[in-house]
Amino acid sequence: MYTTGEVARICGITVRTVQFYDTKGLVTPSGSTEGGRRLYSSQDLSRMKIVCFLREAGIPVRTVAAILREDNSREVITLLLQEQKWQLEQEISGHQNKVQLLDCLILCLTEGSVHANGMMEEEIIHKVEEEVRNMEEKKDKKALWNIRRNLLLVGIPLNILELAAILYGVNSGSWWPLALVLVTMIPLGVVASRYYLQSVNYRCPQCNAVFKANPKEAFWASHTPNTRKLTCPQCGTKGFCVETTRAPQS
After folding, report:
1. Residues of the chain whose pLDDT is less than 50?
2. Three-class DSSP category at 112
3. Could you give the angle at which helices 42-56 and 61-68 cross, rounded to 10 degrees?
4. C-beta of residue 13 within 8 angstroms of C-beta of residue 56
5. Cβ atoms within 10 A of the Cβ of 59, count?
6. Euclidean distance between CA atoms 201 and 233, whole angstroms
7. Is-contact 202 191, C-beta < 8 A?
8. Which bin fits 248, alpha (ψ -120 to 50), beta or left (φ > 0)?
9. Spatial separation of the C-alpha atoms in residues 108 and 136, rounded to whole Å
10. What pLDDT was estimated at residue 116?
């Protein structure tokens, strides 16, 4: 058995972080001493290491907590890590292409348009066009984050208006402002949700299929910042599917 301090030292985190994960239900100690000190088993320690690794990979606490409650948590976590690895590989590949392109252009400018690192001018032009396409793909990925930001910019003021209308109704007894806000929020929420779902894809942890979410199911599905509980159209499994920028499979 391990104390809170020992778990923190082994995992390279603070005692406060260990206690925080306990309050969030991520890693709960299996026992305690007679004096009331928390004690973690070897299994608890292994779970803590997994949680710490996921957090270092940039996966939010809310997502980790929701996934660990699922029966197929191992598959979903593996898929999340694969998705992060794929995104990093895409970035690395893009940087490597840029370096190669710059080398080719430098040689082309210094040696003329005949040869540049074994490439003819037409090949260099083709390489430039390929790099432009890669840049467009990155713009699409950035656009996805912009969509999330724009949804927040719309949603936060509406939530503030809703709260203000509730407070106004409580104090004045007049509820027409709240009714007006709700009439405005409901259609905007439906439009915003459909717009977002049309911009993202999801990947099944069971069969790795990439698909577009069914709007009706996705609208009511429980979700985290990185996953949504959906039914895979390929294998029929329902569970947390990972949001991805990959294109749907035909």
Report:
1. 113-117
2. coil
3. 140
4. no
5. 21
6. 12
7. no
8. beta
9. 24
10. 46
- Strand pairing partners for 3? 39
Integer CA distances (angstroms), 187 to 181, 190, 193, in order: 11, 5, 10
Per-residue HEC secondary structure of 212-242 comes to CCCHHHHHHCCECCCEEEEECCCCCCEEEEE
* Distances, alpha carbon 60 to alpha carbons 37, 42, 82, 91, 122, in Å: 28, 24, 16, 21, 46
Handedness of CA 223, 20, 6, 35 (dihedral sign): negative
Residues in the chain: 250
Amino acid at residue number 53: F
- What pLDDT, on a 0 to 100 scale, did the predictor assign at position 231? 92
Structure tokens at 44: 């608890």
CA atoms of 198 and 192, how far apart (whole Å): 10
Considering only CA atoms, which of 249, 244, 247, 250 is closest in space to residue 82? 244
Distance CA 209, CA 194 (A): 21
User: Which DSSP state fits 204?
Assistant: -
Query: CA angle, corner 219, sides to 214 and 220, nearest 5?
Result: 110
Tokens read off for 56: 């270092």
Q: Nearest 5°: CA angle at 19, between 15 and 23?
A: 170
